[in-house]
Specification:
Number of strands: 6
Radius of gyration: 16 Å
Strand content: 5-15%
CATH superfamily: Protein tyrosine phosphatase superfamily
InterPro entries: Prot-tyrosine_phosphatase-like (IPR029021), Tyr/Ser_Pase_IphP-type (IPR026893), Tyr_Pase_AS (IPR016130), Tyr_Pase_dom (IPR000387)
Number of domains: 1
CATH class: Alpha Beta
Oligomer: single chain
Largest sheet: 6 strands, mixed
Helix content: 40-55%
Organism: Promicromonospora iranensis
Family: Belongs to the protein-tyrosine phosphatase family.
Protein name: Protein tyrosine/serine phosphatase
Shape: globular
Order of helices and strands: EEEHEHEHHEHHHHH
Strand order of the largest sheet: 1-2-3-6-4-5
CATH architecture: Alpha-Beta Complex
């Protein structure tokens, strides 16, 4: 555990929105504020929530969901010029359980899609970047962890941030308890060992996070831009 203090943002309708500024780096220092924000789907936003999200001045809004998810639950920010659809799954991709296997399967299967998502953070115009999926937990958690790992984020801090999502979404999970499903043995909700296991998998099976993303098409220019954006 670290002393990382999350910067929660109040967007009515959404429970799981935070600016990742202040997240510790292994060499000292922290991620800059107003550079990278994570959230669940903006489809949850109320009218006041749309106003609050729009006022943050995003230069890019990266939607990681599959096309059928977007069709069923349209983003309330989709009409903004900053909106960009960058799915990290292809049609028909399986979802293995338990959780660690789900994450490593996603990563191993689609390095080019994860590299594109991280690249979309790196090459965004100047201004804050929002990354979201449906719950802001799994796909968002992976993309954010990849991007932050490239700039030297502390792994314990990444795990702390990952677990915060469980706390933030607890009221929604409780309200929908009757609709919960356990898919192929996955536990609900996942804990910090899941994101730590995914990052360790990349290091043991692919050499490093950077090597994995480079194989997917991320360039040294992307990595330099990402470091400049997130840590100055």
């Amino acid at each position: 555990m670290t002393d990382y203090t999350p910067l929660h943002l109040d967007w009515p309708g959404c429970l799981n929105v935070r600016d990742l500024g202040g997240l510790p780096l292994t060499g000292g220092g922290t991620v800059r504020e107003r550079t990278l924000v994570r959230s669940e789907s903006p489809s949850f936003l109320t009218d006041d929530g749309v106003v609050a999200a729009t006022a943050y001045g995003f230069s890019r809004i990266i939607d990681l969901r599959r096309p059928e998810e977007i069709e069923q639950y349209p983003s309330r920010l989709a009409e903004l010029p900053a909106h960009l659809h960058v799915p990290v799954q292809a049609a028909g991709d399986p979802e293995e359980g338990p959780w660690v296997h789900l994450y490593t399967g996603l990563l191993d299967r689609r390095p080019e899609l994860f590299a594109r998502a991280v690249g979309a953070v790196a090459d965004a115009p100047e201004g804050p970047v929002l990354v979201h999926c449906a719950a802001g937990k799994d796909r968002t958690g992976l993309v954010v962890a990849l991007a932050l790992s490239l700039v030297g984020a502390d792994l314990d801090a990444l795990a702390d941030d990952y677990e915060i999502t469980n706390q933030r979404l607890a009221p929604r999970y409780a309200a929908r308890a009757a609709d919960r499903e356990v898919l192929a043995g996955r536990e609900i909700p996942p804990t910090r060992h899941v994101i730590v296991g995914a990052m360790e998998h990349l290091r043991t099976q692919h050499g490093s996070v950077e090597a994995y993303l480079s194989r997917g098409g991320l360039t040294p220019g992307h990595i330099r831009a990402l470091r400049s954006r997130l840590i100055g």
